[in-house]
Amino acid sequence: xxxxxxxxxxxxxxxxxxxxxxxxxHSPYPAEDVMRGYCTPYPECxxxxxxxxxxxxxxxxxxxxxxSWSASGPTIVKPVTxxxxxxxxxxxxxxxxxxxxxxxxxGDWLWPA
Length: 113
Hints:
two-stranded antiparallel sheet; 5% helix
């Protein structure tokens, strides 16, 4: 919402995402099933790739596997998503600089989406 000139972005819940197409030739899976790894064929069905991720593909920054195991036990895809803003085609300039004032969310479980 930016009706007063201030852009406000609200983190969302991963489980609120629409069904995810994680395996080709298979119907989409509910986001919560992907997050927890409650699907087959595993791990393909529970592998979530962040759309338009600017980091290296197949790294923890851009990919997560729900229900996977590590030395500390089972993991799930983090349940809170943050935001990504695209301004391409909305604003251009040739010289100068852009300054922003931003408060980034703090807390556990935040993950770019």
